[in-house]
Amino acid sequence: MAGRPRGVDDSVILRAAAEVIGRVGPTGLTLAAVADEVGLVPGTLVQRFGSKRGLLVALARQSAHEAQAHHERLRQGRPSPLAALVALAEESMALMDTPERFANHLAFLCMDLTDPQLHEYALVIHETQRRAILALLDEAVTEGELRIGTDTAALAGSVQALIAGTGLTWALDRQDTLPERLRRAVTALLSPHARSKEMS
């Protein structure tokens, strides 16, 4: 197979890397597998990223850089801030649609926790998500979906913890789909603070 070093954008390669991680985990990831996914030769990926670690760092960097714009897109076209918040919860786990894929992406997160460079980008993603959640909660108060006086800062932390915990619980008990579980969990958490029970 002939490589096309200038025919495939880096962002396409990095999305393919995320897909391969979902299938085999970060330890099973190889440049050859990613290259095959996008129709390149492994040598092209070596030229662009240097190594498997270089590819993983590039994936983490791109995810961090795109996080804010991604959250902003979720608000567009949604009927309310709380509907956008539910969508944010669902989208944050979109790559983890089976317990096996969840486990493989969780293994990548474990690398983030022990590798200083990867941790830097993971922390950016984490903090960007929290700011997006807080902004949607504040907007929900302003628009009358949540009660005036709601402690949105504390609630934002609870929402973020709930998203992570729901994913792990679902991967263990495997009941329903992850989007369904996230929607129910977020709705239940916000319900006591809501002026209206309608969040979608």
Automatic annotation (TrEMBL):
Domain HTH tetR-type span(s) in chain numbering: 7-67
Source taxon at top rank: Bacteria
UniProt DNA-binding residue ranges: 30-49
Keywords: DNA-binding, Repressor, Transcription, Transcription regulation
Record GO terms (molecular function): DNA-binding transcription factor activity; transcription cis-regulatory region binding
PANTHER family reported for this sequence: HTH-TYPE TRANSCRIPTIONAL REGULATOR RUTR, POSSIBLE TRANSCRIPTIONAL REGULATORY PROTEIN (PROBABLY TETR-FAMILY)
Family annotation (InterPro entries): BetI_C, Homeodomain-like_sf, HTH-type_TetR-like_transc_reg, HTH_TetR, Tet_transcr_reg_TetR-rel_C_sf
Protein name (Swiss-Prot/TrEMBL): TetR family transcriptional regulator
SUPFAM superfamilies for this protein: Homeodomain-like (SSF46689), Tetracyclin repressor-like, C-terminal domain (SSF48498)
